[in-house]
Amino acid sequence: MNRIATKLIGAAVAAILASGAMAGNKEVAVGLLTQGLAGDTAFIKEHVAKGYIQHNPQAPDKRTGLLGFVEYLQTLDTPVSIEPVRVLAEGDLVLVHSAMKFDGDKVVFDLFRFENGRIAEHWDGIADAPATTVSGRSMLDGPTEIVDQEKSQENKALVLGFVQDVLINGQGDKLPRYIGDVYYQHNPQIGDGLEGLGKFLGYLAENKISFGYSKVHRVVAEGNFVFVLSEGQIGGATQGFYDLFRVAEGKIVEHWDVIQPVPDSMAHENGMF
Hints:
Oligomer: single chain
Shape: globular
Largest sheet: 5 strands, mixed
Number of strands: 10
CATH class of the largest domain: Alpha Beta
Number of domains: 2
Strand order of the largest sheet: 1-5-4-3-2
Number of helices: 8
Order of helices and strands: HHHHEHEEEEHHEHEEEE
CATH architecture of the largest domain: Roll
CATH topology of the largest domain: Nuclear Transport Factor 2, Chain: A
């Protein structure tokens, strides 16, 4: 492990990184979250591009905007802390799934795009971590080890097929093609298995709440994990859908997510996607 990882992260996070294909980009992404946001501006200046493109609706654009946002975080009574749980990478993208303490307990998906060794772009989805969930699981627990590296593209195709057929086209009859007897759910409002998913969709239909995905924007697949950033609507309001799936033996067996509304105004003109 290089000097960034050994200097900036503890043993637990180092183990998470080591569970997948080691890459400098992963270490830099984790370093930004655990060190940069804690006030290490030198780290930001070294590892973030000047033209950094921001998609968090509340954070200003460019590296100067990020530095200003970090400066603001240091004025808060309670420091922001982030604990990465899962880190996966594909090409120039790195996805970090974390627990965050910021005005309460949060769950965050941070997606970074690298260019010439530096972080050039950032998307994220943030949600409150509830005390209880329908399945009894938290929004973060479950397996973290990345396995089946040779199946990354096969698993990506499976998950994208599910998103396109079921979530975008509404072809519920195709669910058994993608989900089998085992399906562990971490969305706080949905139970396990096809039964839990069916009850949730039935609730939406019964209450005439429109729901649907419309477009996939970004995908990161590494081994048995596939992350998909999509756009869609719930009840007529545009949402960002941040979905992480775990695949085993050709079926989707586990799901984590964050759903974040798209606000009417943002601190930049880049949009959330």
